[in-house]
Fold each of these.
Amino acid sequence: MAKIKGSGNRTTELRLVQILRRSRIIGWRRRSNVFGKPDFAFLKAKLVIFVDGCFWHGCPRCYTSPATNSAFWRAKVQRNRQRDLTVNRELRKRKWVVMRLWECQLKDDAKVTRRIQNKLDRLGPAATAKAH
Ligand SMILES: [Zn+2]
């Protein structure tokens, strides 16, 4: 667990990379200098995606408080969630569309693809070009 830092982690990020590639969604970047360091950014569409680790960000479905030091962990998760909200708010102020996916939601490729594609479609055809 010590290897997992802050929001998301490499494995979950790579999982979304795989989903995006498979569904031929393009126009995204993983390393961008967008505020809040989103895991993925569609610069033209102004859409950012965060993949939140279920444990660190307190997923309502998966999070279970550790038996030891539970107050400490609760406070830590609380702080992460608070920071997520602050980042969301700031990004929206800067006209970004913010999407947050739970790590556990990445198990359903089709659903994730649909959600992202719908968002991109709504942001307009100029926002992204679909590869054929
Ligand atoms: Zn979860």
Amino acid sequence: MSAAPVIWRNTRIATCDAQGQRFERGALVTLGDRIEWVGPEAQLPVTASTQHDLQGYWLTPGLIDCHTHLVFAGHRAGEWRELQAGASYAQIAQRGGGILSTVRATRGASESELFAAAAARLECLLAEGVTALEIKSGYGLTLSDERKMLRVARALGQHYPVSVRTTFLAAHAVPPEFAGRADDYVAALTDEWLPALHAEGLVDAVDVFCEHIAFDVGQAARLLERAQRLQLAIRMHAEQLSNIGASQLAARCGALSCDHLEYSTVADVAAMARAGTVAVLLPIAFFHLQMTQVPPIAALRRAQVPMAVASDCNPGSAPSASLQLAMAMAARVFGLTPEEVLLAATRHAAQALGEARRGVLAAGYKADFAAWDVSGPEDISYWLGRNLCRLVVRGGVVTQGNVPA
Ligand SMILES: [Zn+2]
């Protein structure tokens, strides 16, 4: 059955395209799950029997959360109290807390329990206008538990109106079975786990927590080299707590994104710029961990490295299921402008996921968009903890809210 065009009119549009086009009295035409046309309503090129009056709401691309650890069991509220009492994230990790405490809870959860826990968080993101997100593994740390996490991530994308990109992050922490044998663990990931899970269609990208408390550059390089041979996308947890050369390695591997970047240098930024790597900023983790070292925003701007912002939803360093909060905090704690923040959760987030046809409202792109009851798209990051999203359309279909009557 061929789709008929649908007109979405009487709306103000922030296209988020490279020209920064906005239309004060705009309209958008969709055909099935694609955008056919965007422009001033007075120039609508077609008529359609289905027309929706958006009553002056602002329209943006659907938001994209390009860095999440959405699938996990349990919580780490106890550790948060330790953090507040002055312990560091690294100290908590070194005494067996941190990631490994979530690993214990996640291993003990069934696939359906994990799905239910993650679904509750996902519903929060969807209500905020999110139409695509990335979900990492990394709390299983056995082949079967990593598989379980990735299967849940895929299932979320099948059961909810959202596009899910999965990332294999078994190189998140050294599991107890490999204590003191990190090289052996990386060899297992490289030679067995990654090829197996890739063959099962569960992996879209590979990520490494490349950090002094996790995996070194040599170990990361071995895993990423295999990822490249499998033609998988690469992203990297880089320079969050220290600088051991993670984003330089990621850039050499052609990574889609380097994420965190608090301790990145100007040379790291230059390497990312040359490689076309997106800088994914995670202000909620920065804030929650009470960090003081800010990512090199001015250098990223000067080098024209695209900046994305993500929730980093995870139980240890970013207990939040709000991309809007991350956007609001990116403006406050990292000094991004509201215009930069909007691109960071749309076009640049799409780029971080290798999604060439999302994150922009233009002909040929996916018909994923959100309508906002705001005076301008800047309001999305102006408000703290107030969700002004009134309608979400994903693939041309209304998935949240109601079209105004
Ligand atoms: Zn992360």
